[in-house]
Amino acid sequence: MSESVTDRATDRSPGRATDRTDFFHRHKDLLERAVAAAGDRDHWSPHPESPSPKVYGPEAAPAGEATFRAHLGSAFKLPGHPQSGTVAVGERSPYGLPLDVDYPQVTPEEAVAAAKAAASAWRAATPDVRAGVAAEILSRLNAASFEIAHAVHHTTGQPFVMAFQAGGPHAQDRGLEAVAYAWAEQKKLPAVTRWTKPQRKGEPLVMEKTFTPVGRGVNLLIACNTFPTWNGYPGLFAGLVTGNPVIVKPHAGAVLPLAITVRIAREVLAEAGFDPDVVLLAAETADQRTAAELALHPDVRVVDFTGSKEFGNWLEEHARQAVVYTEKAGLNTVVLDSTDDYKGLLRNLAFALSLYSGQMCTTPQNLLVPRDGIRTDQGTRTAAEFAEDLAAALDKLLGDPERAAGTLGALVNDGVRARLSEAAGLGQAVHPSQTVDHPEYDGATLSTPHVALLDAAADAGTYTREWFGPVSFVIATDSTEHSLRLFTETVRAHGALTATMHATGEDVLEAARAAALEAGVHLSENLTGAVFPNQTAAFSDFHGSAANPAASATLTDSAFITGRFDVLQSRRHVAPETATATEES
Amino acid sequence: MSESVTDRATDRSPGRATDRTDFFHRHKDLLERAVAAAGDRDHWSPHPESPSPKVYGPEAAPAGEATFRAHLGSAFKLPGHPQSGTVAVGERSPYGLPLDVDYPQVTPEEAVAAAKAAASAWRAATPDVRAGVAAEILSRLNAASFEIAHAVHHTTGQPFVMAFQAGGPHAQDRGLEAVAYAWAEQKKLPAVTRWTKPQRKGEPLVMEKTFTPVGRGVNLLIACNTFPTWNGYPGLFAGLVTGNPVIVKPHAGAVLPLAITVRIAREVLAEAGFDPDVVLLAAETADQRTAAELALHPDVRVVDFTGSKEFGNWLEEHARQAVVYTEKAGLNTVVLDSTDDYKGLLRNLAFALSLYSGQMCTTPQNLLVPRDGIRTDQGTRTAAEFAEDLAAALDKLLGDPERAAGTLGALVNDGVRARLSEAAGLGQAVHPSQTVDHPEYDGATLSTPHVALLDAAADAGTYTREWFGPVSFVIATDSTEHSLRLFTETVRAHGALTATMHATGEDVLEAARAAALEAGVHLSENLTGAVFPNQTAAFSDFHGSAANPAASATLTDSAFITGRFDVLQSRRHVAPETATATEES
Fold this sequence. Notes:
Aldehyde Dehydrogenase, Chain A, domain 2; Aldehyde Dehydrogenase, Chain A, domain 1; 585 residues; 20 helices; disordered N terminus
């Protein structure tokens, strides 16, 4: 990815080239910076993560909230969107607020037909033009961060600051990262080149060859309830920039954040002279099964999915006509051997388990601790003692209701509540989940993490299942070696999005790195400060890996891009002396 | 792909770094040149395609032939290779020569176990080390080009010069192209980087992050009868360089070229300090079904396949645990509208149909011609007249037995012979296939192309099947527009490896380009000289495309590489002032 990546830019779209390249020229520097950042993997973000008025201006927060509130009880407008009536999806805020937003209703056939009708002009545009449009969409999404933050807060139950950050700027970062990869990947080859092969006698053979990236077809995005934008934007923008129309199928419980996103995308597409149906919303109720129907449509050639292992595996098994990128679930694991900052370790882990009530696909579930203890700067702590210390750290973190609310958020749906009830009977509860009153919303259920002490040998049936929500286990093992073996075996078999090692010795850390490579999972080492196992930074940290069963994709790497388009070639002879520019004559 | 791609080279393999990087340092310039060539797509090859003594030296040809002849009637030696007895695969030259070579017998379980045992050190080596080993293998394969040429000639039936070029230097070019892509793709990210995030108060957060490419698992290569090396090397080298052990499963009729390849690869691996079982040979008889068994083995994570549509589709359907790259078959199409060099067009097409008796996955089968004729510099020629002219051009090309033998080669197997017999009854035969005596070998069956005149409407059932071998159709259509529509429809439905357009008007050529993009196939325009529709040049032309059903891969693009490895990350805090170099402390 070189700085000169735009040198090969050629816009061959007929007629309105000037209009269509406007957004590209506006964002060219940003795109080049993003490509460089994805290569360097140092910290970088053009989207400030602080919701402070000093950053977004004093009007942004109240204006965004007002815009959000205006959606409530209304029919969401998407001008020009194919529509046969409206659908009341029944979104209800985990904080008790009824949303009552109706969305355009569209059948799978209608959605695919509209996407296909919009596809050809979009496909004919250059990667530059598409990347420019995508960057403009992201810029306007950033301006709408407060509106989207409230929509995320009231559909996912995320605490507000998290909803702002993860649902706004961090999701926009992930989207821009996908744009950068998709743009650079399509520009690796020249649009037109000259091939000159010397001959033993006479003139050389000379051909002019063109290389055209062509999108695979309709890209379906099936989004999740908990991180509709953060997990959705990479697929949305990767699909768009590689020349595919995208049908956005939100989770019935979290439509609004993506409806706002689709509205903004369509506005930008129309301004750039494209059919806005390049991006479509396919809202459905929880009872409808349009996701499955859409995913099997012969013209749907790419599927992005975030959600349950069951449906993810079903998609991988059945959507054979498509390239399927899934982010499912697994057994996020922490291996504890030793630490020189036991307080920091406990603080970090307590927060990691509590953040958004453990409803992150990255929340640690299985904490593997040698039965006889870990060495710490506070002396050796057995597995049982460590479990008690963790329980105390959780109580300390969540003792203040305001702070608890700002950390825990609310339980997103009945599935999480059911799992939490079921977990109450498992192993030896060292920190039983407790209900906390929300200082502002009467309707919200706040629950502290449930932590149980398990035995590695006796309780394998329990900890080799995923318990999505505020449920984690301290698992007593025979030794660190045993922990690392268990880590590799369980993650290879059941997958994981995150893994963490706490150890002071370089030899143990090296063994952990080897175990993580064997398990196929990204590793965090000795997190005791302000970086948590469940957080990944766009442009620097990878999220997920096809190397283990929890996902079939990494956000964001080249493999996440290359399945979405093909480069097609044409070749013709030209006279040796003819210049490339005569192509147009 | 920048010139500085090696700046990030770091060999972290323990102990014998000096030995293992030797080959990399020897071939570093070549690798960088190859990466640049794959980006520029101008003509480039480090492997001379001429078998002339002036190029390869006066001794190369006789020495290569002697080495080949020494294999006949012997047991092929692969020192250290896992082996439970030997297998007589029954290779028989299409020119009549019995080969009688026995190969090591190995069960699928034994092969996978040996590959896995060899994998970890290979995976732990750096991309530089692996690319260096691969480049050395290719360099030695180039030195063995005459030995391999005879092995290809006497297993595939290719005429000798073609066997030398396609089986030797051109296959080596394709292999090196795969090495270049695989090497560059793994080096897009830094091995170690520093992440520094400013904090509102106090010191910045600083982390050191490592990125390690990790191969997916065992890579199975299922090779074909007609182009064992040309179609096999891309997968072999892409698999190797991305850190996977490769099990080579040759077609029972064409084992020797790949056995020689495996022997050379194992020699280089051993010299570089690796377990030679990183590359294994799994020879089988035509009756055994080890390919299917190997392809479903849970530890086989990548499959490369060239061959029939039926088995290719079966692999895509059933080898769900693996990433499957197939190159199958389709309806290679020529659309004729007009030409200003009718003689050149006929000469070019006659050669394209005759080369290796049409037994190339790229040989044109369906020639779409407006019933009322094409405009040429020799006047308008109706579809029927064009068919007669083509027949005459074939007779002229193949009239001399020596030249016919050097062009046609021999029919590779009974499947081709059966199809040729079946084709005799189809449509109106304008050039019935004729048998030609080989000037040197009594046992060879040489057959000229069978060309029949068909009707686009009446004979769709015939021309929408693939007739692999010397069978082509002149199909009378209503118009060029009709031809282009048929072209798009049939290729979208049944696939194609190649497409060719003959037209003098830029508007018609533009329409053909649009049709080819819609069909998802690479296009050649107005080939009337020394470049033929069925030939593609490594580093410049793409071969195949996942954009149509004839293949699920392109030789060679990034998608052919990215499914073979994942990048795994680890991260740890470091003090802001610590230098990266302290990692080793």
